[in-house]
Design goal:
The complex is a heterodimer.
Chain A lengths: L1 H13 L3 H36 L5 E2 L5 H4 L1 E2 L3 H7 L4 H31 L4 H12 L6 H11 L5 H10 L10 H29 L3 H9 L4 H26 L6 H7 L5 H4 L2 H11 L4 H30 L5
Antiparallel strand pairs in A: 1-2
Helix pairs in contact in A: 4-15, 5-9, 5-11, 6-9, 7-12, 9-11, 11-15, 14-15
Chain B lengths: L1 H13 L4 H32 L3 H6 L13 H7 L2 H33 L6 H13 L4 H10 L17 H12 L3 H9 L4 H12 L1 H17 L2 H6 L8 H14 L7 H34 L3
Helix pairs in contact in B: 2-14, 4-14, 5-8, 5-11, 5-13, 8-11, 11-14, 13-14
Classes of the chains: A mainly alpha, B mainly alpha.
Chain lengths: ~325, ~300
């Protein structure tokens, strides 16, 4: 009886006019809303404020005049960007670095997780994990400092490469051809262990009975890996992949800024580093720089959106 | 006696592994040892270099596995470098105050976002998640920070980066896992939102809280880019910005020239603390990253 009454009551409430519903919501939840107020303010100011600030990409922004007083120029800066002589270079470098990360760094963590998973000695597996996580805790600035030393004229890596492959002894950071390999290899060094954690924890969740059953059916190690381990990892891989693709155009510009020199701009300058230089360092133009950044953010957003669409259609693994 | 040997034989037979698999295991072991060596060699080189004599290092080329004419000279000059210690102080302030404030805000935000039965729930969640995928970019962010008067203040390294949405989502996911009944019974006893959040929910999701705090702390420790944009007074330079001068600019800019052994000693001094904490927190983040792997 009471439940029927309550249900009726609920149904009636749902049909209340909007105004009444809002009033009821506020009287019931005002404490909750008050609690969220500072958070809301934070998001509006520091996350949505900059988004609103994107309007300066349609202006000739002058700091003295502010956003309201600056002159509107329509899509001038975007047109300039599409005609920028550096645009092909920026796109090429951004794509090269992003795709190389996707092709080399991304799978390396999965392979490491599989290899750690197959180690027989527990002690060994724990040691490998502990050691491989260490570089993640070394700051980017320090990692770049170490790289600078290792690939300098007398550095360990330069010496090693010239001894093994007979490569000419130079400061490798001043050679455009070496920039991407240096970036990718050091990226793997820093992150392979850390990125493998997610896959390792997915691996421990696999039902051991699957392996027992496979063994009874005569499956060898290789069959077990390709038919059980990897399929069980796929959902995790897909989610990590979407996240990675979304961040793809956001290539680690902090690291690039610490490693590149004008000598290697040819292969190292990406959209984000260009945004920084045009915003703060050379030929400064806030509006232009913002337009370039806007283009980058928009591409990022579309990338996540579409990869998510595609993967959810393919297998039902999606972020939202 | 015969019984025992028989048993041993049977045991051996049962753990007979086919040749192919044995090769696989051996190769796996070898590969992993090789990987560990690759990861450790650059670090050993740095430590060995830091204990080496400056002049001997200059004339040497290649990797070091052991110091050249060992000396503590490099460390002596690092200890006398006042910039490093003010940098340390500033970074400690940013890491401690920043992480505490980050956690407070993230907990409150995650609490509200994970409640049920209020009208703006969907809107708030969408607003938060959208900001993870789209951002205004570098210049507008800079202008906003400047506009609210944080430019040149050490707080510019704390307040604008209070909430990392990815971390917030981890906490929110953990909170959704807490059974409603606990909260309801607390409400009946007259507990307010803050009591429920800090006395009931937070203790239940402590592993996730620890991991997220670790993420925030590491991010504050490592960050240098915002400091480069916002901090102009050397008095407020965080450690990473000082390191950047010593390690990166010293190669290209004559004002900052510094011997390599000193650079190495600086690296060691600036990295040891975080590596010392690391073994103690390792088990936490392995546990917590599983929470993070659950979809946002």
């Amino acid at each position: 009886m009471t439940t029927v009454a309550r249900k009726k009551n609920q149904a009636a409430r749902r049909h209340l006019p909007l105004g009444a519903r809002i009033r009821r919501d506020i009287t019931k939840n005002w404490k909750l809303y008050c609690m969220f107020l500072p958070i809301l303010a934070y998001f509006l100011i520091f996350k949505y404020g900059p988004m609103a600030g994107l309007v300066i990409s349609f202006q000739d922004f002058k700091a003295a005049r502010g956003v309201m007083g600056s002159k509107w120029v329509g899509v001038k800066h975007f047109i300039n960007f599409f005609n920028d002589p550096f645009l092909p270079r920026l796109l090429r470098n951004t794509l090269t670095i992003a795709l190389s990360t996707l092709v080399f760094s991304f799978p390396s963590a999965i392979v490491l997780a599989l290899l750690i998973n197959e180690l027989r000695s527990r002690k060994m597996s724990r040691t490998v994990q502990t050691i491989s996580y260490i570089p993640h805790f070394i700051s980017t600035v320090v990692v770049c400092g170490i790289i600078r030393d290792l690939v300098s004229r007398t550095g360990g890596v330069t010496m090693l490469l010239s001894a093994i492959f007979g490569m000419p002894v130079t400061n490798m950071l001043y050679e455009p051809n070496y920039f991407v390999p240096i970036y990718i290899i050091s990226d793997i060094w820093s992150n392979i262990g850390w990125n493998s954690i997610v896959y390792l924890s997915a691996l421990t969740a696999i039902d051991q009975e699957l392996y027992e059953a496979a063994k009874v059916d005569g499956a060898n190690k290789w069959h077990q890996i390709t038919h059980i381990t990897i399929p069980c990892l796929v959902p995790t891989i897909v989610i990590m992949f979407i996240l990675k693709v979304g961040k793809m155009f956001d290539v680690g510009y902090e690291k690039i800024m610490l490693l590149y020199t004008p000598l290697t701009y040819e292969t190292a300058d990406v959209i984000n580093t260009y945004v920084y230089r045009r915003g703060f360092a050379e030929n400064v133009n806030f509006s232009y720089s913002t337009a370039v950044g806007f283009f980058n953010s928009a591409v990022c957003f579309l990338l996540v959106f579409f990869t998510n669409k595609i993967t959810s259609r393919l297998g039902g693994n999606s972020l939202w | 006696m015969t019984d025992l040997s028989k048993q041993k034989k049977r045991l051996k037979a049962s753990i007979q592994i086919p040749l192919g698999e044995r090769i696989f295991y051996l190769a796996d072991d070898a590969l992993m040892i090789f990987l560990c060596v690759l990861i450790l060699v650059p670090l050993i080189h740095v430590v060995a270099g830091s204990f080496s004599d400056g002049m001997s290092y200059m004339t040497h080329s290649g990797l070091l596995l052991w110091p050249l004419s060992p000396t503590l000279d490099a460390y002596r000059s690092v200890i006398h470098n006042q910039n490093i210690w003010t940098g340390y102080g500033n970074t400690l302030f940013i890491v401690i105050v920043g992480t505490v404030l980050d956690m407070l805000c993230s907990l409150v935000a995650a609490y509200v976002l994970s409640r049920k039965n209020y009208m703006l729930k969907k809107f708030f969640n969408l607003m938060v998640v959208f900001s993870m995928y789209f951002s205004g970019g570098m210049i507008p962010f800079f202008l906003v920070v400047k506009g609210v008067g944080l430019y040149k203040s050490i707080w510019s390294l704390i307040i604008p980066s209070l909430i990392n949405v990815f971390n917030l989502v981890i906490v929110r996911t953990a909170m959704t896992g807490v059974p409603d009944s606990l909260e309801e019974s607390a409400q009946l006893d007259g507990a307010g939102h803050f009591t429920i959040l800090f006395r009931i929910i937070t203790p239940l999701i402590l592993p996730s809280v620890a991991v997220v705090a670790l993420y925030y702390a590491v991010a504050h420790w490592n960050s240098w880019f915002n400091a480069m944009l916002f901090i102009k007074d050397r008095k407020y330079y965080p450690l990473q910005l000082v390191l950047r001068e010593i390690l990166i600019l010293s190669d290209t800019d004559e004002d900052f020239t510094m011997s390599e052994t000193i650079q190495f000693a600086t690296i060691v001094v600036a990295t040891i603390p975080i590596l010392c904490v690391y073994p103690f927190i390792q088990r936490y983040f392995v546990k917590g990253i599983m929470v993070g792997a659950v979809k946002g």
